[in-house]
Specification:
It is a single chain. By secondary structure, the protein is of the alpha/beta class. It has one domain (about 1-265): Rossmann fold (3-Layer(aba) Sandwich). Helices cover about 30% and strands about 25% of the residues. It has eight helices and nine strands. The chain has a five-stranded mixed beta barrel. Strand 7 (about 175-185), helix 6 and strand 8 form a beta-alpha-beta unit. The chain is globular.
């Protein structure tokens, strides 16, 4: 039924001429609203108006979808402000996003997230370009049911797309960490020091409660993916959601600059 709901949502958006080549999913507290001001033919809609769309219920996820054309290349861009997490009660809801954008014809998805830093060199405000995922969210088979590529996921993030984002960061004079491994956990509680030490020892760079379902579903449907995480706190130390939102908002400007540079210089069609 989830796929059917996503198809119905896409049909509704098509009537509004929302047909993106590339979409961005914004994590907790992450805000790139100034990008919208530079879009032409912008359309904005609350996700509660989209039939079947699973509404986020957590602070920092506004439930807002914006579509428009950006830059000299007139790239068709959609930005989703907020997502629903597994811990909000519906395991399939996070995958709805990728399913919906697949039906809209999107070819590229960039997934952002607010995360706890596991690597000891990371500090709040740092940006990490992801290269891999450690999935601790369970029910892995749901990601690939009814799919011919059920056992063929090799790399969740596309090399050429990730390289373009890294080059955009360099052009923007913003340092980002690379080769990040995202440990995907269910939440909503934060990790204990022992859990963080375990994740560090098996290779995790950051930890968060999203990303994996959307990225796996997108890969299943042939969408090229990239992941960018903003470190909002040191994992395993005292923190709360309000502090996470504040840190994400403060670091969003650097992420915005990277995305602006990326969209101005990268021809999405070069990937397909």
């Amino acid at each position: 039924m989830q796929n059917q709901n996503a198809k119905e949502a896409a049909e509704f958006l098509k009537k509004l001429k929302i047909l993106p080549e590339i979409f961005f999913v914004l994590g907790s507290g992450i805000d790139i609203s100034p990008l919208v001001d530079d879009m032409s033919d912008a359309v904005e809609i609350s996700t509660v108006e989209i039939r079947g769309f699973p509404p986020p219920t957590v602070a920092g996820h506004r439930g807002r979808l914006v579509f428009g054309k950006y830059g000299a290349l007139k790239t068709a861009v959609a930005i989703l402000f907020g997502r629903k997490h597994i811990y909000e009660g519906d395991f399939s809801a996070p995958m709805f996003i990728s399913e919906m954008f697949t039906h809209l014809g999107a070819k590229i998805g960039i997934f952002t997230s607010a995360v706890g830093g596991i690597d000891k060199s990371l500090r709040p405000g740092d940006i990490v370009l992801l290269s891999d995922i450690l999935n601790f969210q369970g029910k892995y088979s749901l990601y690939y049911r009814h799919s011919s590529i059920r056992h063929k996921l090799y790399k969740p993030f596309h090399d050429k797309l990730s390289d373009a984002i890294l080059n955009s960061a360099l052009k923007s004079n913003i340092y980002i960490f690379t080769n990040g491994t995202y440990a995907a956990v269910t939440g909503p509680g934060y990790e204990t020091p022992a859990e963080v030490e375990m994740l560090r020892r098996i290779g995790a760079t950051v930890v968060g409660m999203s990303t994996a379902p959307e990225v796996y579903a997108a890969n299943r449907n042939g969408i090229k993916c990239a992941g960018l995480s903003i470190v909002t706190n040191r994992a395993g130390t005292s923190s709360n959601h309000s502090e996470v939102l504040t840190a994400a908002e403060r670091a969003s400007n650097n992420l915005l600059k990277i995305i602006e540079t990326f969209l101005k210089n990268f021809d999405c069609k070069s990937l397909y």
